[in-house]
Amino acid sequence: MMDAITQLHGTTPEQLTETIFKGIDERLEGLKKDFQPREPEEFLSRKETAALLKISLVCLHDWCNKKLLKPRKFGNRTYFLRSEINETMLNSNT
Questions:
Q1: Local structure of 72: helix, strand or coil
Q2: DSSP 70
Q3: What is the enclosing helix (H) or strand (E) of 73?
Q4: How many CA atoms within 13 Å lie on the side-chain side of 45?
Q5: 39/49: higher pLDDT
Protein backbone atom coordinates (compact mmCIF):
# COMPACT_ATOMS: atom_id res chain seq x y z
CA MET A 1 0.00 0.00 0.00
CA MET A 2 2.84 2.38 0.84
CA ASP A 3 4.41 1.90 -2.63
CA ALA A 4 1.19 2.97 -4.35
CA ILE A 5 1.01 6.15 -2.28
CA THR A 6 4.65 6.96 -3.00
CA GLN A 7 4.13 6.50 -6.73
CA LEU A 8 1.04 8.72 -6.76
CA HIS A 9 2.71 11.46 -4.70
CA GLY A 10 4.60 12.92 -7.67
CA THR A 11 1.81 12.38 -10.20
CA THR A 12 -0.46 15.17 -11.41
CA PRO A 13 -4.22 14.54 -11.64
CA GLU A 14 -3.96 14.78 -15.45
CA GLN A 15 -1.22 12.13 -15.55
CA LEU A 16 -3.24 9.85 -13.28
CA THR A 17 -6.35 10.30 -15.43
CA GLU A 18 -4.37 9.57 -18.59
CA THR A 19 -2.86 6.44 -17.05
CA ILE A 20 -6.28 5.18 -15.97
CA PHE A 21 -7.82 5.84 -19.40
CA LYS A 22 -4.89 4.13 -21.13
CA GLY A 23 -5.39 1.04 -18.95
CA ILE A 24 -9.13 1.02 -19.67
CA ASP A 25 -8.52 1.38 -23.42
CA GLU A 26 -6.09 -1.55 -23.40
CA ARG A 27 -8.56 -3.70 -21.46
CA LEU A 28 -11.41 -2.83 -23.83
CA GLU A 29 -9.30 -3.68 -26.89
CA GLY A 30 -8.59 -7.09 -25.37
CA LEU A 31 -12.29 -7.66 -24.73
CA LYS A 32 -13.22 -6.60 -28.29
CA LYS A 33 -10.97 -9.31 -29.73
CA ASP A 34 -12.78 -12.02 -27.73
CA PHE A 35 -16.31 -10.64 -28.19
CA GLN A 36 -18.77 -12.90 -30.02
CA PRO A 37 -22.18 -11.28 -30.51
CA ARG A 38 -25.11 -13.57 -29.76
CA GLU A 39 -28.09 -13.80 -32.00
CA PRO A 40 -31.41 -13.35 -30.27
CA GLU A 41 -33.36 -16.58 -29.81
CA GLU A 42 -35.65 -17.08 -32.77
CA PHE A 43 -38.47 -19.54 -33.36
CA LEU A 44 -39.00 -20.76 -36.91
CA SER A 45 -42.17 -22.31 -38.31
CA ARG A 46 -42.13 -25.67 -40.07
CA LYS A 47 -42.06 -23.97 -43.49
CA GLU A 48 -39.28 -21.59 -42.45
CA THR A 49 -37.25 -24.46 -41.03
CA ALA A 50 -37.69 -26.58 -44.15
CA ALA A 51 -36.71 -23.62 -46.34
CA LEU A 52 -33.65 -22.91 -44.17
CA LEU A 53 -32.50 -26.52 -44.39
CA LYS A 54 -33.56 -26.82 -48.05
CA ILE A 55 -35.62 -29.92 -47.35
CA SER A 56 -39.27 -30.85 -47.82
CA LEU A 57 -41.86 -30.80 -45.05
CA VAL A 58 -42.00 -34.60 -45.28
CA CYS A 59 -38.25 -34.81 -44.70
CA LEU A 60 -38.57 -32.37 -41.78
CA HIS A 61 -41.25 -34.62 -40.28
CA ASP A 62 -38.96 -37.64 -40.68
CA TRP A 63 -36.06 -35.79 -39.00
CA CYS A 64 -38.34 -35.00 -36.05
CA ASN A 65 -39.38 -38.65 -35.77
CA LYS A 66 -35.69 -39.66 -35.83
CA LYS A 67 -35.05 -37.10 -33.06
CA LEU A 68 -32.60 -35.14 -35.23
CA LEU A 69 -34.59 -31.97 -34.57
CA LYS A 70 -36.62 -31.06 -31.52
CA PRO A 71 -39.99 -29.49 -32.37
CA ARG A 72 -41.71 -27.09 -29.96
CA LYS A 73 -45.50 -27.24 -29.85
CA PHE A 74 -47.59 -24.14 -29.10
CA GLY A 75 -51.23 -25.09 -29.38
CA ASN A 76 -51.59 -26.71 -32.77
CA ARG A 77 -48.50 -24.99 -34.21
CA THR A 78 -44.97 -26.37 -34.42
CA TYR A 79 -41.80 -24.29 -34.11
CA PHE A 80 -38.07 -24.92 -34.02
CA LEU A 81 -35.33 -22.94 -32.28
CA ARG A 82 -32.84 -21.53 -34.77
CA SER A 83 -29.96 -22.07 -32.32
CA GLU A 84 -30.83 -25.76 -31.97
CA ILE A 85 -31.03 -26.15 -35.76
CA ASN A 86 -27.59 -24.55 -36.12
CA GLU A 87 -26.15 -26.72 -33.34
CA THR A 88 -27.62 -29.87 -34.89
CA MET A 89 -26.20 -29.02 -38.30
CA LEU A 90 -22.75 -28.26 -36.89
CA ASN A 91 -22.66 -31.50 -34.89
CA SER A 92 -24.32 -33.75 -37.46
CA ASN A 93 -21.11 -35.58 -38.40
CA THR A 94 -20.07 -36.41 -34.85
A1: strand
A2: -
A3: strand 72-74
A4: 4
A5: 49
DSSP 93: T
Closest by CA position to 80, among listed 38, 51, 37: 51
Question: What's the pTM?
Answer: 0.57
- Tell me the C-alpha to C-alpha distance, in Å, between residue 1 and each of 7, 8, 93: 10, 11, 56
DSSP letter string, 21-44: HHHHHHHHHHHHHH--PPPPP-EE
Backbone angles phi, psi at 77, to 5 degrees: -110, 150
Q: How far apart are CA 74 and CA 81, in angstroms?
A: 13
Q: Which amino acid is at 15?
A: Q
The amino acid at 6: T
The 10s digit of each residue's pLDDT in 40-76 is 789 999 999 999 999 999 999 999 999 999 999 999 9
